[in-house]
Amino acid sequence: MAASSPRFSFTAGSLGADSDSPASAPVRFVVERSLDVPIDCLRVDLGASGGAAVGDDVTLDLGVGDAGLERVFTGSVAELRPRLGGCRLFCVGMMLALVDLRVASFYQETSAGDVVRDLLGQAALDAGDISDGVTLPRYAVERRVGAHAQLRRLAERLGFSLFADRQGKVHFKGLGAAAALGSGGIGGALAGAASSLLEGGTTTLEYGKHLLAAEGSLRPPLARTIVVGGESPTSGQGEDKSFWLTAKDSDYEDSAGSGDDWLITDTAARTKDMAGRFAAGYAASFGRRTTAVRASVLGNATLELGDAWGLSGAPEEGLNRSGMVAGLRHRFGAQEGFVTDLVLAVEEASS
Question: Does domain 97-174 have CATH number 3.55.50.10?
Fold first, then answer.
Protein backbone atom coordinates (compact mmCIF):
# COMPACT_ATOMS: atom_id res chain seq x y z
CA MET A 1 0.00 0.00 0.00
CA ALA A 2 2.84 2.38 0.83
CA ALA A 3 4.24 2.01 -2.66
CA SER A 4 1.19 3.73 -4.15
CA SER A 5 0.89 6.54 -1.61
CA PRO A 6 0.93 10.11 -2.96
CA ARG A 7 4.11 12.02 -2.10
CA PHE A 8 5.21 15.66 -2.16
CA SER A 9 8.20 17.94 -1.76
CA PHE A 10 7.61 21.65 -1.10
CA THR A 11 9.95 24.61 -0.60
CA ALA A 12 9.20 28.26 0.19
CA GLY A 13 12.33 30.22 1.02
CA SER A 14 13.97 28.55 4.00
CA LEU A 15 10.97 26.29 4.58
CA GLY A 16 11.36 22.78 3.23
CA ALA A 17 8.83 20.01 3.71
CA ASP A 18 8.23 16.60 2.17
CA SER A 19 6.29 13.42 2.81
CA ASP A 20 8.98 12.06 5.12
CA SER A 21 9.58 15.32 7.01
CA PRO A 22 6.35 17.38 6.84
CA ALA A 23 7.66 20.58 8.44
CA SER A 24 4.93 23.16 9.21
CA ALA A 25 2.34 20.38 8.68
CA PRO A 26 1.20 20.98 5.06
CA VAL A 27 -2.49 20.10 4.80
CA ARG A 28 -3.39 20.76 1.17
CA PHE A 29 -1.90 21.93 -2.13
CA VAL A 30 -3.90 23.19 -5.12
CA VAL A 31 -2.08 24.06 -8.37
CA GLU A 32 -3.99 25.79 -11.20
CA ARG A 33 -2.53 26.43 -14.65
CA SER A 34 -4.15 27.31 -17.97
CA LEU A 35 -3.23 28.45 -21.47
CA ASP A 36 -5.97 31.07 -21.11
CA VAL A 37 -4.77 32.52 -17.78
CA PRO A 38 -1.43 34.39 -17.75
CA ILE A 39 -0.23 33.45 -14.26
CA ASP A 40 -0.02 30.00 -12.66
CA CYS A 41 -1.38 29.75 -9.11
CA LEU A 42 -0.61 27.62 -6.06
CA ARG A 43 -2.56 27.63 -2.79
CA VAL A 44 -0.94 25.98 0.24
CA ASP A 45 -2.56 25.30 3.61
CA LEU A 46 0.00 24.91 6.40
CA GLY A 47 -0.28 24.14 10.09
CA ALA A 48 2.18 27.00 10.66
CA SER A 49 3.92 29.52 8.41
CA GLY A 50 7.32 28.00 9.15
CA GLY A 51 9.15 31.23 8.35
CA ALA A 52 7.80 31.55 4.81
CA ALA A 53 7.62 35.18 3.66
CA VAL A 54 6.19 37.18 0.79
CA GLY A 55 8.57 37.08 -2.15
CA ASP A 56 10.13 33.73 -1.25
CA ASP A 57 10.87 31.39 -4.16
CA VAL A 58 8.50 28.41 -4.24
CA THR A 59 8.64 24.95 -5.80
CA LEU A 60 6.29 22.01 -5.51
CA ASP A 61 6.94 18.44 -6.66
CA LEU A 62 4.28 15.72 -6.57
CA GLY A 63 4.27 12.01 -7.31
CA VAL A 64 2.95 8.60 -6.37
CA GLY A 65 4.87 5.83 -4.61
CA ASP A 66 8.24 4.85 -6.06
CA ALA A 67 7.58 6.48 -9.45
CA GLY A 68 9.48 9.58 -8.36
CA LEU A 69 8.48 13.22 -7.97
CA GLU A 70 7.78 15.65 -10.79
CA ARG A 71 7.86 19.44 -10.63
CA VAL A 72 4.32 20.85 -10.93
CA PHE A 73 4.87 24.49 -9.92
CA THR A 74 7.63 27.11 -9.90
CA GLY A 75 7.00 30.61 -8.61
CA SER A 76 7.01 32.82 -5.53
CA VAL A 77 4.87 33.70 -2.50
CA ALA A 78 2.51 36.56 -3.32
CA GLU A 79 0.47 36.68 -0.11
CA LEU A 80 0.39 35.14 3.38
CA ARG A 81 -2.82 34.75 5.36
CA PRO A 82 -1.94 33.77 8.92
CA ARG A 83 -4.83 32.60 11.10
CA LEU A 84 -5.41 30.75 14.32
CA GLY A 85 -4.42 27.18 13.70
CA GLY A 86 -2.41 27.68 10.54
CA CYS A 87 -1.44 29.78 7.56
CA ARG A 88 -2.42 29.88 3.90
CA LEU A 89 0.07 30.82 1.19
CA PHE A 90 -0.96 32.23 -2.18
CA CYS A 91 1.80 31.70 -4.71
CA VAL A 92 2.08 32.92 -8.31
CA GLY A 93 4.04 31.64 -11.29
CA MET A 94 7.02 33.22 -13.02
CA MET A 95 4.92 34.90 -15.73
CA LEU A 96 4.01 37.65 -13.25
CA ALA A 97 7.24 39.42 -14.19
CA LEU A 98 6.07 39.71 -17.82
CA VAL A 99 2.59 40.86 -16.77
CA ASP A 100 4.16 43.61 -14.65
CA LEU A 101 6.70 44.67 -17.29
CA ARG A 102 5.85 47.99 -18.94
CA VAL A 103 8.39 49.26 -21.43
CA ALA A 104 8.47 51.14 -24.71
CA SER A 105 10.32 49.40 -27.55
CA PHE A 106 10.36 49.70 -31.32
CA TYR A 107 11.51 46.95 -33.68
CA GLN A 108 12.26 46.94 -37.41
CA GLU A 109 12.67 43.86 -39.58
CA THR A 110 12.58 41.69 -36.47
CA SER A 111 11.04 38.26 -36.07
CA ALA A 112 8.16 37.82 -33.63
CA GLY A 113 10.33 35.35 -31.72
CA ASP A 114 13.11 37.91 -31.28
CA VAL A 115 10.61 40.44 -29.93
CA VAL A 116 9.52 37.83 -27.36
CA ARG A 117 13.11 36.96 -26.45
CA ASP A 118 13.98 40.64 -25.93
CA LEU A 119 11.03 41.26 -23.61
CA LEU A 120 11.65 38.04 -21.68
CA GLY A 121 15.21 39.21 -21.14
CA GLN A 122 13.97 42.56 -19.83
CA ALA A 123 11.68 40.67 -17.45
CA ALA A 124 14.58 38.41 -16.34
CA LEU A 125 12.69 35.28 -17.40
CA ASP A 126 14.10 32.08 -18.88
CA ALA A 127 13.09 31.41 -22.48
CA GLY A 128 11.85 27.95 -23.39
CA ASP A 129 10.75 27.03 -26.91
CA ILE A 130 10.40 30.34 -28.79
CA SER A 131 9.26 30.10 -32.42
CA ASP A 132 10.27 32.94 -34.74
CA GLY A 133 6.93 33.10 -36.55
CA VAL A 134 7.02 35.97 -39.04
CA THR A 135 9.39 38.87 -39.67
CA LEU A 136 7.70 42.09 -38.62
CA PRO A 137 8.59 45.12 -40.80
CA ARG A 138 7.71 47.41 -37.88
CA TYR A 139 6.43 46.55 -34.43
CA ALA A 140 6.02 48.73 -31.34
CA VAL A 141 5.53 47.87 -27.69
CA GLU A 142 4.03 50.64 -25.57
CA ARG A 143 4.34 51.39 -21.87
CA ARG A 144 0.62 51.95 -21.33
CA VAL A 145 -0.04 48.19 -21.60
CA GLY A 146 1.76 45.32 -19.90
CA ALA A 147 4.21 43.36 -22.06
CA HIS A 148 2.33 40.10 -21.55
CA ALA A 149 -0.93 41.50 -22.95
CA GLN A 150 0.87 42.75 -26.07
CA LEU A 151 2.72 39.48 -26.63
CA ARG A 152 -0.51 37.56 -26.06
CA ARG A 153 -2.09 39.61 -28.85
CA LEU A 154 0.87 38.83 -31.10
CA ALA A 155 0.55 35.12 -30.27
CA GLU A 156 -3.14 35.12 -31.21
CA ARG A 157 -2.31 36.65 -34.60
CA LEU A 158 0.06 33.77 -35.28
CA GLY A 159 -2.09 31.02 -33.76
CA PHE A 160 0.61 30.56 -31.11
CA SER A 161 0.35 30.13 -27.34
CA LEU A 162 2.28 32.11 -24.72
CA PHE A 163 2.69 30.22 -21.45
CA ALA A 164 5.11 29.14 -18.72
CA ASP A 165 5.93 25.48 -18.13
CA ARG A 166 6.32 23.60 -14.84
CA GLN A 167 9.92 24.80 -14.51
CA GLY A 168 8.99 28.44 -15.04
CA LYS A 169 10.38 28.73 -18.60
CA VAL A 170 8.27 30.78 -21.01
CA HIS A 171 7.21 29.33 -24.38
CA PHE A 172 5.90 31.10 -27.49
CA LYS A 173 4.93 28.55 -30.11
CA GLY A 174 2.18 26.86 -32.06
CA LEU A 175 0.37 23.97 -30.40
CA GLY A 176 -1.83 21.33 -32.00
CA ALA A 177 -2.77 22.36 -35.53
CA ALA A 178 -0.86 25.63 -35.16
CA ALA A 179 2.43 23.72 -34.76
CA ALA A 180 2.42 23.48 -38.56
CA LEU A 181 2.26 27.27 -38.90
CA GLY A 182 5.67 28.70 -39.64
CA SER A 183 6.56 31.92 -41.38
CA GLY A 184 3.79 31.56 -43.97
CA GLY A 185 0.12 30.62 -44.09
CA ILE A 186 -0.75 27.01 -44.83
CA GLY A 187 -4.14 27.52 -46.47
CA GLY A 188 -6.23 24.38 -46.58
CA ALA A 189 -3.59 22.27 -44.82
CA LEU A 190 -4.65 23.68 -41.46
CA ALA A 191 -7.61 21.36 -41.09
CA GLY A 192 -5.57 18.20 -41.56
CA ALA A 193 -2.77 19.28 -39.27
CA ALA A 194 -4.77 18.85 -36.06
CA SER A 195 -5.54 15.16 -36.49
CA SER A 196 -2.11 14.22 -37.82
CA LEU A 197 -0.25 15.94 -35.00
CA LEU A 198 -2.40 14.44 -32.28
CA GLU A 199 -2.30 10.96 -33.73
CA GLY A 200 1.50 11.13 -33.83
CA GLY A 201 2.17 11.39 -30.10
CA THR A 202 -0.97 11.18 -28.00
CA THR A 203 -0.83 9.54 -24.55
CA THR A 204 -4.10 7.97 -23.44
CA LEU A 205 -5.96 8.14 -20.13
CA GLU A 206 -8.13 5.03 -19.84
CA TYR A 207 -11.60 4.54 -18.38
CA GLY A 208 -11.42 2.05 -15.50
CA LYS A 209 -7.72 2.77 -14.95
CA HIS A 210 -7.15 6.52 -14.73
CA LEU A 211 -10.49 8.30 -15.13
CA LEU A 212 -12.51 9.40 -12.11
CA ALA A 213 -14.95 11.70 -13.93
CA ALA A 214 -15.32 13.26 -17.37
CA GLU A 215 -17.66 15.50 -19.33
CA GLY A 216 -17.53 17.10 -22.75
CA SER A 217 -18.68 20.26 -24.47
CA LEU A 218 -19.05 19.30 -28.12
CA ARG A 219 -19.78 22.13 -30.54
CA PRO A 220 -19.50 22.53 -34.31
CA PRO A 221 -16.01 23.36 -35.58
CA LEU A 222 -15.28 26.87 -36.81
CA ALA A 223 -16.90 27.28 -40.23
CA ARG A 224 -15.88 30.82 -41.16
CA THR A 225 -13.48 32.39 -43.61
CA ILE A 226 -11.14 34.59 -41.61
CA VAL A 227 -10.34 37.63 -43.75
CA VAL A 228 -7.49 39.85 -42.54
CA GLY A 229 -6.64 43.25 -43.95
CA GLY A 230 -4.36 46.03 -42.78
CA GLU A 231 -4.02 49.54 -44.15
CA SER A 232 -0.75 49.44 -46.08
CA PRO A 233 0.04 48.80 -49.78
CA THR A 234 3.54 47.51 -49.01
CA SER A 235 3.29 44.33 -51.07
CA GLY A 236 2.13 46.21 -54.12
CA GLN A 237 4.23 49.38 -53.91
CA GLY A 238 7.29 48.37 -51.88
CA GLU A 239 8.43 48.57 -48.27
CA ASP A 240 9.04 52.33 -48.48
CA LYS A 241 5.27 52.80 -49.03
CA SER A 242 4.28 50.89 -45.90
CA PHE A 243 2.93 54.05 -44.27
CA TRP A 244 0.45 54.70 -47.10
CA LEU A 245 -3.25 53.97 -46.82
CA THR A 246 -4.79 51.69 -49.42
CA ALA A 247 -7.25 52.91 -52.02
CA LYS A 248 -8.76 49.43 -52.36
CA ASP A 249 -8.70 47.24 -49.24
CA SER A 250 -9.34 43.96 -51.03
CA ASP A 251 -6.02 44.25 -52.91
CA TYR A 252 -4.11 43.69 -49.67
CA GLU A 253 -6.40 41.30 -47.82
CA ASP A 254 -5.96 37.55 -47.49
CA SER A 255 -7.95 34.78 -45.86
CA ALA A 256 -7.99 31.28 -44.36
CA GLY A 257 -10.78 28.77 -43.74
CA SER A 258 -14.14 28.35 -45.41
CA GLY A 259 -17.65 29.64 -44.80
CA ASP A 260 -19.08 33.10 -44.24
CA ASP A 261 -16.52 35.91 -44.04
CA TRP A 262 -15.27 37.10 -40.68
CA LEU A 263 -13.35 40.35 -41.32
CA ILE A 264 -10.52 41.33 -38.99
CA THR A 265 -8.74 44.64 -39.53
CA ASP A 266 -5.20 44.40 -38.21
CA THR A 267 -2.81 47.29 -38.83
CA ALA A 268 0.17 44.99 -38.14
CA ALA A 269 -0.66 43.08 -41.35
CA ARG A 270 1.48 45.32 -43.55
CA THR A 271 1.73 42.94 -46.51
CA LYS A 272 -0.68 40.61 -48.28
CA ASP A 273 1.49 37.64 -47.29
CA MET A 274 1.40 38.69 -43.65
CA ALA A 275 -2.38 39.12 -43.84
CA GLY A 276 -2.61 35.51 -45.04
CA ARG A 277 -0.34 34.31 -42.23
CA PHE A 278 -2.37 36.19 -39.63
CA ALA A 279 -5.61 34.80 -41.08
CA ALA A 280 -4.29 31.24 -40.65
CA GLY A 281 -3.17 32.11 -37.12
CA TYR A 282 -6.51 33.58 -36.12
CA ALA A 283 -8.27 30.53 -37.57
CA ALA A 284 -6.10 28.23 -35.47
CA SER A 285 -6.65 30.32 -32.31
CA PHE A 286 -10.43 30.43 -32.78
CA GLY A 287 -10.59 26.74 -33.71
CA ARG A 288 -9.34 25.75 -30.26
CA ARG A 289 -12.37 27.37 -28.61
CA THR A 290 -15.04 24.96 -29.78
CA THR A 291 -14.95 21.37 -28.50
CA ALA A 292 -13.48 20.58 -25.07
CA VAL A 293 -13.35 17.57 -22.75
CA ARG A 294 -12.89 17.96 -19.00
CA ALA A 295 -11.71 15.06 -16.90
CA SER A 296 -10.58 14.19 -13.38
CA VAL A 297 -7.94 11.49 -13.15
CA LEU A 298 -5.74 9.83 -10.57
CA GLY A 299 -2.96 12.28 -9.76
CA ASN A 300 -0.60 12.71 -12.71
CA ALA A 301 2.27 15.16 -12.24
CA THR A 302 3.68 14.53 -15.73
CA LEU A 303 0.84 16.39 -17.47
CA GLU A 304 1.99 19.60 -19.12
CA LEU A 305 0.18 22.41 -20.91
CA GLY A 306 0.17 21.96 -24.68
CA ASP A 307 0.89 18.21 -24.61
CA ALA A 308 -1.27 15.82 -26.63
CA TRP A 309 -3.43 13.52 -24.50
CA GLY A 310 -6.64 11.60 -25.05
CA LEU A 311 -9.37 9.63 -23.28
CA SER A 312 -10.25 6.07 -24.23
CA GLY A 313 -12.62 3.31 -23.21
CA ALA A 314 -15.36 5.58 -21.83
CA PRO A 315 -18.87 4.14 -22.29
CA GLU A 316 -20.01 7.47 -23.79
CA GLU A 317 -18.20 7.63 -27.13
CA GLY A 318 -18.26 11.43 -27.21
CA LEU A 319 -15.66 11.44 -24.43
CA ASN A 320 -13.14 9.28 -26.27
CA ARG A 321 -11.31 12.14 -27.95
CA SER A 322 -7.79 13.46 -28.24
CA GLY A 323 -6.66 17.03 -27.80
CA MET A 324 -4.05 19.23 -26.24
CA VAL A 325 -3.96 20.06 -22.55
CA ALA A 326 -5.35 23.58 -22.21
CA GLY A 327 -5.87 23.60 -18.44
CA LEU A 328 -4.60 21.76 -15.36
CA ARG A 329 -5.44 21.60 -11.68
CA HIS A 330 -3.63 19.37 -9.19
CA ARG A 331 -5.32 18.75 -5.83
CA PHE A 332 -3.26 17.12 -3.10
CA GLY A 333 -4.50 16.64 0.47
CA ALA A 334 -5.27 14.23 3.26
CA GLN A 335 -8.96 13.91 2.37
CA GLU A 336 -8.83 13.74 -1.44
CA GLY A 337 -5.42 12.19 -1.95
CA PHE A 338 -3.84 13.27 -5.25
CA VAL A 339 -6.28 14.16 -8.06
CA THR A 340 -5.61 15.96 -11.35
CA ASP A 341 -8.28 17.84 -13.29
CA LEU A 342 -7.56 18.66 -16.93
CA VAL A 343 -9.16 20.37 -19.90
CA LEU A 344 -8.49 18.98 -23.37
CA ALA A 345 -9.00 21.38 -26.28
CA VAL A 346 -10.13 19.22 -29.21
CA GLU A 347 -9.42 20.61 -32.68
CA GLU A 348 -11.78 19.27 -35.31
CA ALA A 349 -11.63 20.03 -39.01
CA SER A 350 -14.61 21.88 -40.43
CA SER A 351 -16.51 20.05 -43.14
Answer: yes
CA end-to-end span of the chain: 50
CB count in 10 Å sphere of residue 117: 17
CB 323 within 8 A of CB 348: no
Q: Are 161 and 177 in contact (CB under 8 A)?
A: no
The top-level CATH class assigned to 2-93 is: mainly beta
Q: What is the pLDDT of residue 276?
A: 77
Task: Encode 246-281: b = buried (16+ Cβ within 10 Å), e = exposed.
Answer: beeeeebbbbbbeeeebebebebbbbbbbbbbbbbb
Report the pLDDT value the prediction gives residue 251, as an integer from 0 to 100.
57
Fold of 189-221+290-346: Phage tail proteins - horseshoe like beta roll fold (2.30.300)
| pLDDT beneath 50: ranges in the chain | 1-3, 185-200, 233-235, 237, 244, 248, 350-351
Quick: pLDDT tens for 325-346: 999 999 999 889 999 999 999 8
